[in-house]
Amino acid sequence: MATVLKVFDKWKEFLAERVSQAGHAGMSEETISKLAFQIGEFLANKVDPENEQERVLKELWDAGDEQEKRTLAGLMVKLVDKG
Q1: How far is Cα 49 from Cα 38, in angstroms, rounded to an integer?
Q2: What highest taxon heads this organism's lineage (predicted)?
Q3: Which residue from 11, 16, 36, 62 could staple onto 73, CB 3.0 to 4.6 Å apart?
Q4: How far is it, in rounded angstroms, from Cα 83 to Cα 76?
């Protein structure tokens, strides 16, 4: 997984593909946002930021309460879901 996270654009592409797959599988936006929150929790706890963008996201994540983290996860989904 570390190779996917080395380049932020690559991470966004990876996330966009997963969001697209989830949508095609019939998952609701709410379910996708919940999954994004869980992924955010995993990344914040298990993966060291490898670039400035990831570091900023981790700092925002760490500073937020649960609702703010859910909002940030939803915004990441929106960022990559341009279709």
Answers
A1: 17
A2: Bacteria
A3: 36
A4: 14
27: left (phi over 0), alpha (psi -120 to 50) or beta: beta
Residue 26 CA to residue 1 CA, distance in Å, equals: 26
> CA–CA distance from 62 to each of 3, 16, 48, 59, 83 (Å)?
23, 23, 13, 5, 29
CA distance 65 to 30: 19
C-alpha–C-alpha distance, residues 35 and 52, integer Å: 24
Residue 59 token pair: 């700092």
